[in-house]
Amino acid sequence: MSGYDVHRGENPRILFFFWIVMGASLTLVLGLGWRQLVAYQKYEEIEKRQTERRVLKPGPRGDIYDRKGNLLVGNRPHYSAVVYLDDLRREFRTEYSQIIRAERERLNQIYELTPEDEREDSQLRPNYNDLQWRARQNVIQRYVDQINLVTGRDDTLSTRKIIRHFNEQLLLPLPLVEDLSADEYARLIEQVPVQSPIKVHTDTARYYPYGVAAAHTLGYVQNVNPDPDEIPDDGIKTFTFKTKLGKTGLERSFDTLLSGQTGTEIWRVDPLGFQDTLLEIETPKQGEDLIASIDIDLQLAAETALGDRTGAAVALDIHSGEVLAIASHPSYDLNDLSPFIPRATFDEINERGAWLNRTLQLSYPPGSTFKLLTAIAGMRHGTITPELEHDCQGVYRVGNRIFRCNARYGHGVVNVAASIESSCNVYFYAEGLRMGIDVISDEAKRFGLDQKTGIEVPFETSRLVVPSKAWKREQIGAGWVPGDTANTAIGQGFLLVTPLQMATVMASIARGETRTQPTLRALTNEESSRIDHGGEPIGLTPQQHAAMWEGMERVVGQDGTGRLVQIDGLRIGGKTGTADFRAHGKNVNLAWFVGFAPVDNPQIAVAVMVEGTSASERYHGGSTAGPVAKDIFLEFIQQYPERAGFAAAE
Amino acid sequence: MANIRLEKIKPLVALGVFLVAWWVVPTTVKSFLRVNFSEFQAPAWVATSYLDDLEGFWARRSHSKVELIEAGREVARAKSLYQFNAQRKETLENEIQRLEAILNLPSRREFRYEVARVVRRDLNAWWQQIIIRKGKDYDIPEGAAVVFSGGVVGRVVEVNAFTSRVELVTSPNFRMAANFEGDERPVVYQGVVQGGLGAPIGSVRDAPQDVVASTQFPLKLVSTRLGGTFPPGLMIGRVSWLEPGSTGIFQAGQVELDTSLLGLREVAVLIPLYPIDFDSHAP
């Protein structure tokens, strides 16, 4: 029996403390039991939040192919040299202690040199925070220098970038040198030892095998931080690599489809936040591929034909509305924008006005190409008949104003087919005034010229004008005058359309309907057969139809305004146009050609617009825009001989 | 009693004192000691290798004249074949130079060959190295490529007075840029921890997605000129399968290496005739 046992039974004061201790112990045991057995989930979550970190790695984007399976947009390796800061901790400490020693010596020397009455103790205290960052910068820069030595570069890493990385992305690798070439990558792989903290990180960047081809339509991507809504809200601190977001073109419209599936890594970290153990990994997955309707051979033909000129060219499949080619010039090489857009490149493209997609972002007066719609309006309204003739003397008086024809001495007596062939203004002034602006305006609206086409690329302009009396009153605050009708009848005045719209108009006329829904997605045969463009039959009698067709075919005939578009063995119908336009702060010419082929079995519709860049340039639809369209037709024959009515190449 | 206890811990104390002493010794001294230790061992290795050669010599002396005559004929046949190949190589080299001149291409990196005898193999799961019987005495530089008739052997990692240490292509510490034969895109080859038995293997990563390898049609992994150490086209191994890597777009796979790698008796060290010019695209 111990001394305590003797006292326990006898001393009430000890008994009192005995029960207190017993009670406290029981409370502790119960509390521990409660936390361990009942409330353990709560503590597990807290532990997770404190010790686990999530790293999200976006998956590579899907590829974009043309309708024949040629790669238009893919992914190329994007190499960078990185370090995980965790691997450098020991070096940071060593460097820091060396710097501190040197700094103390320096401060001591200054202190000694200071007169005694001016000395302060604070003079001897270094700025520890600054020295710590300097130590980190020195260590990191040493590795950058090592890379420079191998690659022949001259890169540096700013303290600001290092601080930001430490504070915001500690668990992610710090990029030392980005966008290494294949040579530099190979040299680093071979000449940096495996044990070195320098790691060669492989990511993807967008790659455009055809450079400038369809640049505005394909679009580009930008590296952005991921959407916060996509980050799981479970309290675990999450680090994210930048993801690629489609900014323009198909990259933007089909961003959801093309975006890859994000991969996840869960790391256990040490008390300082550096990575310790990889707990979970889920590999990122590539996004879906997109098959575009574009035919790269036709696209290249359009791009080459436009050359250095400012303008746009669009080719559509008449039946399905699929865009076979869509070119806007001036353009830019998409590869220059990947993996990021350098400021100088942005400014240079901006200066050339090349960011604008002239096929659908800018609207222009359609010029004489609009006469096709005026003719249809007149025929449907009953004012124009195939036999109706006018004697063109080169001028037409409307009130006190003289309106001129494009032939100074006139075209003589012309019917509707001949007026389309020769693009006689007088015929359409007269007929436009006879039918009135309401009829013309209604017909243009029936063909959808007052609406966006709804094609799958963003930023289609809404500045589309099909003028009417109400429109002029509302927008300009003035009344409609006959001169306005005369101008509208020949595609001038207030009318504003896009080259893409004119291509849809041409496709619709060729098909005998009023609407064509253009699409940049390659359609399957089944989808093509089920397609509903949403319009109605044009509503011309066979005679009217024949007259229209005759006129359009004669445009590309021996004496037509579009004779330069002629191709042996291919029947082409079309219309040229020349318009005055104010651009670049001056009045310039616009040259238009719209057409389709073959006339007896329409397959392809083309619209070309070339914009004058100076007042001295005299552009004409037939001689300027026509040859561009011709090159597209020639390539169509080359690529689709059977559809063009030619025997397939052996 | 206390004396007995002290006797027991004496070795531990000695070990502790040694470790503390080693810990406080400056790094330069440690490095000096390590290098000298290698140099100290080297003559023994070299002598052993010469003894091996002598043993081989005496073993061959015991062959009959008929055997020697037959072997002599074999050598003569091989020699004539090699002479023919040497002539062909010279013609091809001239042709390459002519074409390079026409196309205005920068000339390829040139190497001097130094054939060296393997005197020791240091092979285990974690590192795979060989010692060769040439060192500073033959101007062998650190980092030089080492090859044999079957392709890449490794890289020189340490040069002593009369020997050099070569990190084998099988070693996890060996990494090089490579490409698949006929495909210019660079990939990464790296050695891996070797199993006890079986053929040596390595790993390949960063292979583009469109590269397809199968056991029926294995791909040849060869050296690329891009890395600057190896001349292009030297065989590394064969790749029979590739699978998606952790990036989700590149592939990774296993490389089967030449089985004779671990039993080599002679290798050639490629010594660059001029240093890499980083401004040039053709090292």
From TrEMBL, chain A:
Reactions performed catalytically: a beta-lactam + H2O = a substituted beta-amino acid
Keyword Transmembrane: yes
Transmembrane annotation, as ranges: 14-34
Chain segments annotated as coiled-coil in the UniProt record: none
Location within or outside the cell: Cell membrane; Membrane
A molecular function GO annotation: serine-type D-Ala-D-Ala carboxypeptidase activity
Residue span, Penicillin-binding protein transpeptidase domain: 311-633
Cross-referenced Pfam families: PBP_dimer (PF03717), Transpeptidase (PF00905)
UniProt family annotation: Belongs to the class-D beta-lactamase family.
Name used for this protein in its record: Beta-lactamase
GN (gene name): mrdA
TrEMBL record, chain B:
Pfam families: MreC
Keywords: Cell shape
Domain Rod shape-determining protein MreC beta-barrel core as annotated: residue spans: 118-270
InterPro entries: Cell/Rod_1 (IPR042177), Cell/Rod_MreC_2 (IPR042175), MreC (IPR007221), MreC_beta-barrel_core (IPR055342)
Designated name of the protein: Cell shape-determining protein MreC
Homology family: Belongs to the MreC family.
